[in-house]
Amino acid sequence: MTERLNALEHAMLSERDGYQFYAMAAGAATDPGAASTFEHLAQEELQHFNALQRAYRSILETGTWDPDTAWDAPWTPETTERIFSEDFRRRIRDQHLEMAALSIGLLLEKEARQFYTRQAAETADEALAALFRELAQWEDGHYEMLLRQDESLREEYWAQNRFEPLD
């Protein structure tokens, strides 16, 4: 039981950090589309935290976990094609905060996906493994959405800021 609780504690800390990061990015973003997306991601990280907290409490109180208590709302895959406005693209040279938040978000989501995938494979509790697999899928959706944005903006951002890779 201690191993499961330790994994859940680590996951809750990670989700709390993700929430704080995305909330900060939403508050600091100058582009309305970016601010909205970062706020959406913050709220989803909060949902993850709450689901993990319910699992943690359940295991502490009963020694087991009821998967029906996990989610407030069902998960649906991300479908956002573009989170940054055309105005953002025109002003991309000076959008350092949003571009940094995009890069950091990619790292957070990739690490979370790997952690949840590993935890799902390592736990003998099938209900908890299912929760970890669902969280991994959710984080993968975040990662893919942010990756599409990064790929669509990176070259333009680099060109306008005169960043050049070394030969």
CATH architecture: Up-down Bundle
Structural class: mainly alpha
Q: How much strand content do the residues show? A: under 5%
Run of helices and strands: HHHHH
Gyration radius over CA: 18 Å
**CATH 4th-level superfamily:** Ferritin, core subunit, four-helix bundle
Structural write-up:
Helices cover 75% and strands 0% of the residues. It is mainly α. The chain has a single domain, classed as Ferritin (Up-down Bundle). Helix 1 runs antiparallel to helix 2 (32-62), helix 1 (2-28) runs antiparallel to helix 4 and helix 4 (96-122) runs antiparallel to helix 5 (126-160). The protein is elongated, with a radius of gyration of 18 Å.
Features:
167 residues, mainly alpha, Ferritin, 75% helix, 0% strand
At a glance:
The protein is an all-alpha fold and 167 residues long.
Reconstruct the topology from this structure:
Blueprint: H1 2-28, H2 32-62, H3 86-90, H4 96-122, H5 126-160
Helix pairs in contact: 1-2, 1-4, 4-5
